[in-house]
Design brief:
Elements lengths: L1 E7 L19 H12 L9 E7 L3 E6 L10 H13 L10 E4 L2 E5 L2 H9 L3 E11 L9 E6 L6 H10 L2 E4 L7 H13 L7
Parallel strand pairs: 1-2, 1-7, 6-7, 6-8
Antiparallel strand pairs: 2-3, 3-5, 4-5
Helix pairs in contact: 1-2, 1-5, 3-4
Length: 197
């Protein structure tokens, strides 16, 4: 299982945002592109992928590749799935998630609780331009990559990551957009560390 945790610092926590202005909805466009990069192949979906979107430290929208339906390769339809999840947020009670659409879940949660939970079952990897070059790392079997949106991690998030991550990894000499970093991370795993094509 490959996992991606993406924190949306300004992301909406209610469904009253316009699908016509995703950048104006707390840069929801960035999160939608991350979801699409995590799942889409040319003519298929990656079923062995899970994505956790941490929305403003209030809710976590979880996408399960093996269950997903109605995910299309455009930001607007992905945003519609997130909006549908937010419409069902009242059904997320305590630790119980709501499941408004196949493969889409929403629960109450924040960044720290999410990464700590994911770390229990994965090799947790912070993607950061100042990290160890990825080519020096043996590809883990159950990686979970942690990325931030258009903002840097907050000091509290960075402190949490310093405590719980197994690796801090750079994907190259240039800083990449989060969705592009996900694509490169997939390629790194697909090619067994850029060795098998």
């Amino acid at each position: 299982m490959r996992q991606f945790v993406v924190v949306g610092h300004d992301a909406p926590t209610t469904p009253d945002f316009s699908l016509e202005d995703l950048p104006g909805a707390g840069r929801l466009d960035v999160l939608c592109r991350c979801v699409n990069s995590a799942f889409f192949l040319s003519h298929a979906l990656r079923e062995d992928v899970r994505v956790h979107l941490v929305l403003a430290d209030a809710y976590v929208v979880r996408f399960e590749g093996a269950e997903l339906r109605r995910l299309n390769p455009d930001e607007r339809s992905t945003a519609a799935l997130i909006r549908g999840a937010l419409e069902a947020r009242e059904g997320a009670i305590g630790a119980m998630e709501a499941n408004p659409s196949p493969g889409v879940y929403i629960g109450k949660g924040d960044f720290e609780s999410t990464v700590r939970s994911v770390a229990e079952e994965s090799t947790l990897i912070e993607l950061h331009e100042g990290g160890q070059p990825v080519v020096e790392l043996e590809p883990p079997s159950d990686p979970a990559f942690v990325l931030s949106d258009h903002h840097d991690f907050t000091d509290a998030e960075a402190d949490c990551l310093a405590e719980v991550t197994d690796e801090r990894v750079s994907l190259g000499s240039q800083a990449l957009h989060a969705d592009h970093a996900i694509t490169v991370a997939h390629n790194y795993l697909d090619t067994d560390g850029f060795n098998v094509y």
